[in-house]
Specification:
With 616 residues, the protein is mainly α. It has 29 helices and nine strands. Helix 9 packs across helix 11, helix 14 runs parallel beside helix 21 and helix 18 packs parallel to helix 20. It is globular and about 95 Å long. The C terminus is likely disordered.
Length: 616
């Protein structure tokens, strides 16, 4: 029998697996590349095998194009531009608006869906007045074997979607004269009616026009549509609406790129989301929770599983090493309810204990299950809610993919049967991993001056390359990468230089700021005035010296530190990817020696004023 690999490794095992020192492993953890949890002994930590394998694959990819493509497909770097959703440390951001903020503000699911589809925000909550689920679905669903809906709700969704497609005429007609947003609304409302199959009646319930989706869900499942319950269910749908390029979205965009109808694209996404690693994940988590009749037993079972090096269902999202904000918000809403069932209290206790003693954070699936138990929804509802909510995001990505006018067609590397050739893992293991590769994505631009000095394979500079060129090219590349990130916050690279100084030494005069930045004073005056106009700094005169202006950060300028410093850390981490720690140390020593040697250059000393160097 094949022995199951441990999901978590000790520091020694992890370092041996990657062929690195423990200090390098700790650096990977601090940069967010590898997740770690507290072990059974003081100060002992264990490291996620999944993340270690990903680092290993990316290391191989440095010199192997095929491995690079494989590592990109396995939770790799984003390679498809999208304006729909951005994953941030604060959770997904829909068209520039944080999902958690939308949920906190009480935005309706329908409002969020329209935002994803059109990019427009409607302040007034307007339920879909004219949308009604097709009544013929009830008769058709009655022909299915009894219990199909309760046991296979997600798979049934794909059949319902294609049934709706067949009722709208030939594919060619639908592509020419179809109304995609009307299709999207009809699909969502029809799937809401399918939740009636989970109720005691076990029949499809057509949704009445004008019903909010959250209210209609409770009604179709035969539950009272209380205001607080509707609000909690609506919040759940809002937080699940989209999550960048998840496997289901991948499938939807592939179908869209091949010219498929809206119905076919949605059905492809549903089929992808019905497997063991996505839709069935809810069942695995629920099974784990239900095996312990008392909260203490559940906590002990979880600790025992962790001590055995096994992954704990419902915890540890690879994209949120410090916690999934969606789960945190949902669990806080559940905990605030006046009265929760015992099962919910056990989940909340488990989350608290594992967070306090092991540093483990819950995934959104666990929070959705807690919501369903708090609302006393029938079995099968969690996975169904996930797919129902995610339809809104899939539609947005389908529409965006159609506009790109490209076909998603990755290349494969043929490996003869029995070949010992090394292959990188491409296993998807989350409902929310960004993973997409298309032939339409351009390679990063390389400056002509740099490209002219690369070897024939584009692998790197020649051995006799002058040090001045290498340093200049490296510095320019650092600045370009940083500037591209700063642009997302509307900050220029020139302002970054001064902000860095002020975050460390607030209240400098303009002359002192010029000296620290290593630029002429007129340049500083222009930059400071621009930053003052943007609200980043203020200029004040102090004491008897009425000629000098002192520069102070505003609260807005101070807040930028938390947003911008991680950009610089990310650029440095990216630049050092695959570089051994010993080489980094040698490079630092070498550059410092060069700076010292050039600072004592007698020609320079005689001609220019010396300013301290500032690293980007």
């Amino acid at each position: 029998m094949k022995t199951r690999k441990k999901d978590f490794l000790s520091a020694a095992e992890a370092a041996e697996m990657l062929g690195i020192r423990k200090q390098t492993l700790y650096a990977y953890v601090s940069r967010g590349f590898v997740r770690s949890i507290a072990g059974g002994h003081a100060r002992e930590r264990h490291y996620a095998r999944e993340d270690l394998e990903r680092v290993q694959a990316r290391s191989r990819a440095q010199s192997n194009p095929e491995a690079l493509a494989a590592s990109t497909l396995n939770l790799g770097h984003p390679v498809v531009p999208t304006s729909v959703t951005e994953i941030t440390a604060q959770g997904p951001r829909y068209r520039g608006r944080l999902a958690v903020d939308l949920a906190r503000e009480g935005a309706a699911f329908e409002q969020v869906a329209e935002l994803l589809w059109t990019g427009l925000w409607h302040e007034v909550d307007r339920p879909w007045q004219q949308v009604e689920g097709p009544r013929h679905l009830a008769e058709w669903l009655q022909l299915l074997p009894p219990g199909t809906g309760r046991q296979q709700l997600v798979e049934l969704f794909s059949l319902v979607v294609m049934r709706l497609a067949m009722g709208r005429g030939p594919l060619q007609d639908r592509l020419i004269s179809g109304r995609p947003l009307d299709v999207a609304r009809e699909v969502i409302v029809s799937l809401v009616g399918c939740f009636g199959l989970l109720s005691q009646a076990g029949t499809y319930q057509a949704v009445k026009p004008g019903r909010p989706v959250a209210q209609a869900l409770l009604e179709t499942m035969g539950l009272p549509a209380l205001q607080d319950d509707c609000a909690l269910l609506n919040t759940t749908l809002v937080l699940l609406a989209d999550h960048e390029l998840s496997p289901g979205t991948f499938a939807a965009r592939i179908a869209a790129s091949s010219g498929s109808s809206m119905h076919s694209c949605i059905a492809a996404a549903i089929g992808t989301s019905s497997g063991m690693e996505i839709g069935r994940r809810y069942d695995r988590i629920d099974g784990f929770l239900n095996e312990g009749p008392r909260g203490t037993d559940l906590v002990e079972k979880a600790r025992s599983q962790l001590q055995g090096g096994r992954e704990l269902p419902g915890f540890g999202h690879p994209l949120y090493p410090h916690g999934d904000p969606r789960a945190s918000h949902l669990l806080a809403q559940v905990a605030a309810r006046a009265k929760n069932p015992a099962a919910v209290r056990h989940i909340l206790s488990l989350v608290e204990q594992l967070g306090t003693h092991h540093g483990l954070h819950p995934r959104h699936e666990l929070a959705v299950i807690a919501v369903c138990k708090a609302l006393k929804l029938p079995a099968g509802a969690p996975a169904g809610l996930f797919v129902l909510a995610r339809v809104s995001g899939w539609v947005a990505h389908i529409l965006e993919q159609r506009l790109s006018n490209t076909m998603i067609r990755p290349r494969a590397r043929f490996v003869p049967p029995g070949s010992p050739a090394e292959r990188s893992p491409i296993a998807m293991d989350s409902t929310d991993e960004p993973a997409l590769l298309t032939a339409s994505v351009p390679m990063p631009e390389i400056e002509p001056e740099v490209a002219s000095r690369l070897d024939a394979n584009g692998a790197g500079p020649r051995d006799n390359e002058r040090m001045a060129h290498l340093v200049k090219d490296a510095a320019r590349s650092f600045l370009r990468s940083l500037q591209a990130r700063l642009a997302s916050e509307g900050v220029s690279i020139g302002h970054w230089t001064f902000l860095r100084i002020l975050w460390d030494k607030d209240g400098l005069t303009q002359r002192e700021l010029s000296y620290e930045a290593g630029v002429m004073e007129p340049t500083t005056v222009i930059a400071v005035r621009a930053m003052e106009a943007l609200g980043y700094v203020t200029r004040e005169r102090r004491g008897d010296n009425r000629k000098s202006y002192y520069v102070f950060l505003t609260p807005k300028g101070r807040k930028l530190q938390a947003k911008l410093v991680p950009f610089a850390e990310e650029v440095n981490a990216r630049a050092l990817t695959g570089v051994a720690e010993d080489y980094v140390t040698i490079t630092r020593h070498s550059l410092r020696a060069m700076l010292k040697n050039l600072a004592s250059d007698p020609v320079l000393a005689a001609q220019v004023e010396e300013f301290p160097a500032q690293e980007p």
